[in-house]
Amino acid sequence: MKLNRRLIVSLLGGVAAVSSIFAIYQAREEMHALKVALDRQARLLAESQRLPVEQILQAGKTQDLHALTDRYQNQGQLAGMAVYDSKGQPLAITTGLETRLGATPEAVTSALRTGQSRRTFFRAVRDDLHIYVLPLRTDAGTVGAIAIFHNVDYLTVPIWRHAIFSVAQTLLIVLMTLLIVRWSMGKPLRHLALWLRDLRVGDPAAAKLPKDELFGPLTTEAKSLASSLHMARAAAEEEARLRDASLSLWTAERLRISMQRKLGTSRLFAVSNREPYEHVHQGNTIACKVPPSGLVTALEPVLRACDGTWIAQATGDADRETADEHGRLRVPPDHQQYSLRRVWLSKQEEDGFYFGFANEGLWPLCHIAHTRPIFRTEDWNHYQTVNRKFAEAVCEEMEGEHEPFVLVQDYHFALLPRMLKERRPDARIALFWHIPWPNPEAFGICPWQRELLDGMLGADLIGFHIQAHCNNFLATVERALESRIDHAHFSVNRQDHLTSVRPFPISVAFNGNGHNAALDPAAERSRLLHQFGVHAEFMGVGVDRVDYTKGIPERFRGVERLMELYPDYREKLTFVQIGAPSRTFIKRYQDLMAEVEGEAERINRRFQTGSWKPIVFLKRHHSHEEIQPYYRAADFCMVTALHDGMNLVAKEFVGARADEQGSLILSRFTGASHELADALIVNPYDTDELAHAMHAALTMPADEQRIRMARMRAVVKERNVYRWAGSLIGELAGVRLETAPRTISEQPPRRPQVVARAARLAG
Ligand code: G6P
């Protein structure tokens, strides 16, 4: 590293200035200390001579005074001593000092006059001296004085000595600094430069990040910059490749461009209960977490692509500290691409709205999984209040926006579309229902089904994962509400407002991870299991929120049955269940957690030997990055949901298997089973079938695994989340609004019915 002249000159200048200031200050301090010491020494000496001098004077033996004053002849800095009478005439002076002094010093006459001691520097005949005068006082008054004289030449330190010291110090400091800079920064900077070059020319994931705390923040920033560059390059290459192959695959880039075109000048707003980033206190720091939610995984790329605003409930205990006074912040934290607006609920609101009506009422109502829905009037009241609160927040965010696009998410907000449409008829509103829709009889047990349906039909577009759920919804509306249903076009006309109902199968990003040939799944399996002290040849994996719709106890009983039917798998197969605790304040979920843990323990106790057990239950939320190694190393992934709108775990597993190996065992009651026909499709209630499916997965020839996995990957690749978002927004953009175009500030929002009536009158 070459150190440039400017650095050296500024270092020299700066250090010299600081060093000189300190040298001057230090010299002054030193001088002051010496003067204080000199005063003290002179005073003590004068005091010590007071008694002998007084005795001599009383005895009238003035000649003895000469012996006394001569005792202090040439003693170091001490120049001598003198005794004066009351008139200021010297009675005795140290030999040789008299000629240096000349006349009686002024300090002596002053001390005799005032009766007070005096100390001062003064100019004697040839040189400077310090004098301390102690008056001798009796009852009759001041009878004389003792004066102590010191040489003061030692007090004047030559300035050149300070200058030399200062220059030497400056040079030393500058030299040391330059050497330190060269040693401590030169090497890391060289590494950093090489690393940046590797990043620029290669894969950011492959480049080895130098471990240096000094440049830690810089390397982190550079890494994310390089990552964006790499992604942009990959997207451009992919686009070019697709153009070349005349394929039309949805990518993040294509979604971005398509959304720009479809949104035009409009902005996009998404509403969900679950927020994409939650801030929580961890000791003295604040951590940012991504909660376990398929909805969050799916929606994030959309918001990133169009820099929209996501409105969601604030659930982290450090959420307030990390947002502004309106609850707004930019996310993701390390690469800000869109806005998050947090909405705070009171404890009662959260209990009634989220735990109560949404998760004890609507969730079990829509999932046919044998858990009874609970409908409490107070929960319903909170559900309405919170929907209204969100409507308020969304309207605030949309203020001043022309024809905004709103994506309302899930069963938490069935009433929101109507509330929004009434206030903003110019908004294009879609409601995506992430969970199944049951048949009209099942839904009909809800005491507020009409209100819910009416709220939903405020949307211009309602999306479900599969056509069967759309059909169930239309049948439910037909039964419960007055409306016209167009079965040919899958739409509902209620009070002159048209709502289209369409399937949009949600998916994952499918980043097309290249196959890492260096990864040995067998070695990876034993590495992963080794962490839990388990040794096994085969590994199955399951990843879920611990929810009764996911069929986790059923899955464990399937593993148990496998051990009974195929004892050869004992000591050979371990099933790892990653289970994120969920909705833990609800009793049914607490019971389920106890059941899942109990079943795992029971089955393990039954078969466990030495360093092997059939089930490892990891009761904690794992990040996407933590889960990936399990997906890549597993012999099979098991999804046994008793009822699921889609199930993204199935698609994530397929997306992770770039080696085209491994099998997917998939419940036929998931939306995903409609697309992934090459999975081993099972009925999770049939324990024997689960056991046989595991055996089939473990004995499936590599070629067959490859054929099945390749076909499933092709499906997930093509029907990825960008396509989901692209088609949902495309459909929404095609909606004909029932309002005449207007300037928001000019006209107050009108109810759609009013608009329709006005249109009829005009027509
Ligand atoms: C399902 C729902 C989502 C929800 C997720 C996690 O996927 O469709 O709306 O966010 O479960 O559940 P939680 O209650 O923790 O948000």
Q: Please, could you describe this protein's structure?
A:
With 763 residues, the chain is α/β, with parallel strands linked by helices. The protein has three domains: 5-155, 2-Layer Sandwich (Beta-Lactamase), CATH 3.30.450.20; 252-340 and 394-503, 3-Layer(aba) Sandwich (Rossmann fold), CATH 3.40.50; 521-719, Rossmann fold, CATH 3.40.50.2000. The chain contains 23 helices and 23 strands. It has a ten-stranded mixed beta sheet, sandwiched between helices. A hairpin with a 2-residue loop joins β7 (278-282) and β8. The chain is elongated, with a radius of gyration of 44 Å. It starts with a helix and ends with a helix. The relative contact order is 0.07. The structure holds 6-O-phosphono-alpha-D-glucopyranose. 6-O-phosphono-alpha-D-glucopyranose (G6P) is lined by residues 274, 293-295, 410, 434-435, 545, 582-583. 6-O-phosphono-alpha-D-glucopyranose binds at residues 274, 293-295, 410, 434-435, 545, 582-583.
Q: Would you tell me the overall average pLDDT?
A: 90
Per CATH, the class of the largest domain reads Alpha Beta
| Ligands present | 6-O-phosphono-alpha-D-glucopyranose
Could you tell me how far the N terminus lies from the C terminus, measured between alpha carbons in angstroms? 81 Å
| Major beta sheet summary | 10 strands, mixed
Principal-axes shape call: elongated
